[in-house]
Task: inverse folding
């Protein structure tokens, strides 16, 4: 008997625990029915913890897919140990959204909002790759046709949606704004305060209200230390990568380099 509570006993984040429970339930279904099952899309933090849970379960195998090599959000499809990945149907697909966006810049939030406005849950959507005149979206197979038939506008712009092959996905070159600053320590409150040019008090308030994530992990401890290459997300303000934590200057402050994702 698989003990879900034992497998997830180290997880304190209740939302994460619920997500991993769902993944374990998929594995239990595979063991019971000898079929194959697919999770919803998971962010890297959820994915890491879900894989750790699956590694403790015997007689299953799993594969991870996000549509392209550098995808951020991925699904896990779980299957009996005696099957091979090549025998299984890929559980995700891709769509391209085209329209006349010449007079209004359309953002990630606009595309995502239009899709969610159809009543689709966020976990059914993978990466959204925005190009100059079109957008590509990775989705679960079972909602492709629904989006094609029902989505006709993004930010008041008329659009068309069609299915494309996963091999036609074009990676996006992410644009950054590089900044440098000094902080008294590598604590998350100091770094958030400096990056977003807000007071330490306001940074503490944002962190305490569960609006800050480090590598997709929710953080509410204002004294949490940040490492080089950490991805910091602040809900409502954006994301950045800490590209370097350098040495201490003559005033005893740490030199930090970061890349704000535009």
Result:
């Amino acid at each position: 008997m698989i003990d879900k509570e034992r497998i997830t006993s180290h997880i304190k984040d209740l939302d994460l625990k619920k997500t991993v429970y769902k993944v374990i339930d998929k594995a239990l279904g595979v063991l019971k029915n000898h079929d194959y099952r697919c999770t919803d899309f998971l962010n890297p933090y959820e994915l890491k913890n879900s894989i750790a849970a699956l590694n403790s379960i015997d007689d299953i195998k799993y594969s991870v897919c996000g549509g392209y090599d550098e995808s951020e959000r991925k699904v896990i499809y779980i299957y009996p140990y005696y099957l091979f990945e090549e025998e299984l149907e890929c559980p995700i697909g891709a769509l391209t959204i085209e329209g006349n966006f010449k007079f209004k810049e359309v953002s990630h939030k606009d595309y995502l909002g239009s899709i969610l406005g159809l009543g689709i849950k966020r976990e059914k959507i993978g990466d959204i790759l925005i190009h100059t005149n079109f957008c590509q979206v990775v989705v679960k197979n079972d909602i492709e046709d629904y989006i094609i038939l029902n989505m006709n506008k993004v930010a008041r712009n008329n659009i068309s949606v069609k299915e494309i092959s996963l091999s036609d996905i074009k990676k996006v070159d992410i644009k950054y704004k590089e900044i440098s600053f000094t902080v008294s320590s590598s604590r998350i409150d100091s770094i958030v305060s400096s990056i977003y040019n807000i007071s330490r008090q306001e940074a503490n308030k944002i962190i305490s209200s569960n609006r800050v994530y480090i590598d997709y992990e929710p953080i509410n401890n204002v004294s949490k230390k940040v490492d080089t290459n950490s991805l910091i997300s602040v809900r409502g303000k954006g994301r950045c990568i800490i590209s370097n934590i350098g040495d201490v200057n003559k005033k005893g402050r740490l030199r930090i380099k970061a890349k704000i994702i535009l």
In short: The chain is about 25% helix and 30% strand. The mean pLDDT is 94.
